[in-house]
């Protein structure tokens, strides 16, 4: 597979983070409704609050995944050159990455991007489980 096709493929994978973020927002809204509208036990309230915290962690991952998705889309749209050093130079020019750091390969980038998406998935699963516990224990 060519380098540019890998960039398009990884951008498509990272786009899935948007759906995960939408589910997380629905869960956060449900947790807030539980906390505001229904009388809850102390344990149920704690689960709902921890669910909101897990949603905040998920949102942090979602921001980073969305940033990487946008970077890849922009990089793919910029031309045929798939040299990752160009991306590092652009990030260094914006002071988002130290200029002295050696450029990473695409394989290293894919590994990091997958780890971010995996972290977003795990945070969402924790959020959903905590919310389900809050609903189950609401008394």
Question: Summed up, what is this model?
Answer:
This protein is an all-alpha fold and 139 residues long.
What would you report as the Rg, rounded to the nearest angstrom? 19 Å
Beta content: under 5%
Give the overall average pLDDT. 90
Helix content: over 70%
Number of strands: 0
**Alpha-beta content class:** mainly alpha
Poorly predicted regions: none
Order of helices and strands: HHHH
Query: Number of helical runs?
Result: 4
What is the straight-line distance between the termini? 55 Å
How would you characterize the largest beta sheet?
A: none
Shape: elongated
Q: What is the topology?
A:
Blueprint: H1 3-37, H2 42-77, H3 84-93, H4 106-136
Question: Can you put this structure into words, describing what you see?
Answer:
- The structure is a single chain.
- With 139 residues, the chain is mainly α.
- 81% of the residues lie in helices and 0% in strands.
- α1 packs antiparallel against α2, α1 runs parallel beside α4 and α2 packs antiparallel against α4.
- The protein is elongated, with a radius of gyration of 19 Å.
- The model has no long low-confidence stretch (mean pLDDT 90).
What are the key terms here?
single chain; 139 residues; mainly alpha; 4 helices; 81% helix; elongated
